[in-house]
Design a protein that fits this description.
Elements: E1 3-4, H1 17-20, H2 28-45, H3 47-50, H4 56-69, H5 73-87, H6 120-132, E2 142-143, E3 150-151, H7 166-183, H8 194-207, H9 211-223, E4 232-233, H10 235-241, E5 244-245, E6 248-253, E7 256-262, E8 279-283, E9 286-287, H11 288-295, H12 304-312, E10 322-329, E11 332-339, E12 341-342, E13 356-359, E14 363-367, H13 376-383, E15 388-392, H14 401-408, E16 413-421, E17 429-431, E18 435-437, E19 450-455, H15 462-470, E20 476-480, E21 490-495, E22 499-504, E23 507-509, E24 525-526, H16 531-535, H17 540-551
Parallel strand pairs: 14-15, 15-19, 19-20, 20-24
Antiparallel strand pairs: 1-17, 2-3, 4-22, 5-12, 6-7, 8-9, 8-10, 10-11, 13-14, 16-17, 16-18, 16-23, 21-22
Helix pairs in contact: 2-4, 2-5, 2-7, 2-8, 4-5, 7-8, 7-9, 8-9, 14-15
């Protein structure tokens, strides 16, 4: 049985508006911001708009022009009334409560008290829609079964990769802002107030003069929700980052960018003598710190380690093959010319070492990024007599967690619960019952040894969910560093200019309600690689796990 989040009453005394009204400036940007909110509200709360029979995108364009020039609240009220008329007739007199009875204190609708822009008549219409809403379905969103997140396929796609005109650019902003406003479960964790973000980006989308500039504005907007799932896909964005990929990988440790892998096998490319352990000081003459900071606003991330991880993967891409690096190799400064690989030829070979095995001291080790569901039984059978099993989750697992938990746990144990959108009341969410990992019938022959989980900033989404499930093992310790802090199934938003972006569509929490978004999963022993360790070819996280097991702490 699902439980509602505790809802604050959605009722309001009209007489209380004057005393509780919000003060605001009255200018072109603020009027467009209020228009965006009213347009989005009607899209999700008006029964006629919800049917999808009105082209709600086209309904926006004529009122945009009028909102820009409205000289008073009364003029602007006429603009909003026009939008209501386009939405279709709703006989408010047929509602059981024409005048709301209590004050609306739901923060979702606090913007409606802005009497600088919104008159009593418009406010009353919206309040009555809130109180009497009886929409059983909405053409603009539907559930993704069984994921619990939403599909926004009812929105027009705008697949032409050209600069949208100003009205379409505002539509893109309004559409995205309202989807996050009503359907992002972690909106309360965004650092900047979401209404302030709307005011900031209205001038930015209006001033964009080319497809590249507009795309980067929308990329920066999506990054502002601080969600590692806020990927964005567009041909122009790919070209901005560059279609030539570096024949090496880097990590960000101790405030430095260090080479962690060198790929000498990529076709038509060359690492130019670059070596693991080189500290990269500059790329094509740009200091690495400047390169990172200049690109950070365009990169999705839930926390700082995930931001740097994502920058690691992007800052050395480019629009041509050549790349000149300045590196520090044990105190010696070198110039290295690298030849990058065109994206269509870029492919990193799969690892060839065993997926699992037994280390010294009778310690099992499992690479969770390569373990397949069909291999779980054999793996567990072979490792059942080990002193401990190390599950390395510094990767992306393949849906093996429930099968593994059947062998690790004595009984089913709750490990997570979700919040899902309340489709009947957009902007609110419902708790699910907890999810459990382990056997439904008690298993006295479960694995008796110590369980160790290795995690870091690459542990994201399903990897974090897998970690939470395996943390239910009776003797479990998690070792490593802060994970990416992005869990929950993703939903897709299409925007004008052939842009597609994603966001986490359900909330994921520990059974006690503790957050995982942004903070990541619980880590018992913190350890991060060091520059010295990388240069020595050591895996310091794995070493810490082996040291822990040798000391027999649990």
């Amino acid at each position: 049985m699902k439980k509602y989040f505790k809802r604050i009453s959605l009722l309001i005394f009209l007489a209380a508006f004057a005393s509780g009204a919000l003060a605001a400036e009255f200018n072109e940007t603020t009027r467009l911001a209020v228009l965006a909110k009213v347009w989005g509200f009607l899209k999700y709360y008006h029964p006629e708009v919800a049917k999808g029979e009105i082209n709600w995108d086209l309904a926006l364009y004529p009122v945009i022009a009028k909102a820009k020039t409205a000289g008073s609240r009364e003029d602007f009220g006429a603009v909003l009334n026009e939008l209501f008329q386009t939405a279709g007739n709703v006989n408010f007199l047929n509602y059981s409560r024409l005048v709301p009875r209590e004050e609306n204190t739901d923060p979702l609708f606090a913007w409606m008290k802005d009497d600088t822009h919104i008159g009593t008549d418009i406010r009353m219409k919206m309040e009555i829609l809130i109180e009497n809403m009886a929409i059983t379905s909405n053409a603009y969103f539907k559930d993704v079964f069984p994921g619990g997140n939403l599909n926004f396929g009812g929105d027009s796609l705008y697949t032409e990769a050209v600069l949208p005109n100003e009205d379409q650019r505002l539509l893109a902003l309004f559409r995205y802002w309202n989807i996050i406003q009503y359907f992002f479960p972690y909106k309360g964790l965004i650092s900047a107030p979401w209404e302030d973000v709307l005011l900031e980006f209205i001038p930015r989308v209006r001033q964009a003069t080319g497809l590249r500039e507009y795309t980067l504005v929308m990329r920066a907007l999506a990054a502002r929700i601080e969600d590692c799932h806020a990927f964005m896909y567009s041909d122009d964005l790919d070209e901005f980052w560059g279609l030539y990929y570096p024949p090496f990988a880097v990590g960000y440790f101790e405030g430095q960018t260090i080479v962690t892998e060198v790929y000498g096998f990529l076709p038509d490319s060359s690492p130019g003598g670059l070596a693991v352990g080189d500290l990269i000081l500059s790329a094509d003459g740009i200091p690495i710190a400047d390169l990172r900071s200049s690109r950070a606003n365009y990169v999705q991330a839930s926390n700082e380690p995930a931001l740097q991880r994502n920058l690691d993967r992007l800052i050395f891409r480019g629009s041509d093959k050549s790349l000149h690096l300045t590196v520090d190799r044990f105190g010696q400064v070198l110039g290295i010319d690298v030849v990058r690989c065109y994206y269509s030829q870029y492919s990193i070979p799969a690892k060839t070492d065993p997926v699992w095995g037994i280390l010294d001291g009778n310690i099992g080790y499992v690479d969770m990024g390569r373990l397949l569901p069909a291999q779980v039984t054999q793996m567990m059978n072979e490792l059942m007599t080990t002193e401990a099993i190390i599950f390395d989750i510094r990767n992306y697992p393949n849906g093996t967690m429930y099968a593994i938990a059947l062998r690790l746990n004595y009984e089913a144990t709750p490990f997570a619960k979700f919040t899902e959108p309340d489709n009947a009341h957009p902007g609110h969410f419902l708790w699910t019952n907890p999810y459990s990992a382990g056997p439904s019938i008690k298993n006295p022959n479960h694995y008796p040894g110590q369980v160790v989980l290795l995690v870091n900033e690459t542990t994201q989404s399903h990897a974090e969910f897998t970690t939470m499930a395996l943390q239910t093992a009776p003797r479990c310790v998690t070792i490593g560093s802060q994970t990416a802090g992005a869990d929950g199934n993703v939903s897709t938003v299409w925007l004008p200019g052939n842009i597609r972006t994603l966001f986490s569509g359900i909330g994921v929490y520990y059974p006690d309600g503790s957050e995982t978004q942004k903070v990541g999963v619980r880590v018992d022993l913190l350890v991060r690689p060091t520059i010295a360790g990388i240069r020595a070819g050591r895996d310091e996280v794995l070493e810490k796990a082996l040291e822990f097991l040798k000391e027999g702490r649990r």
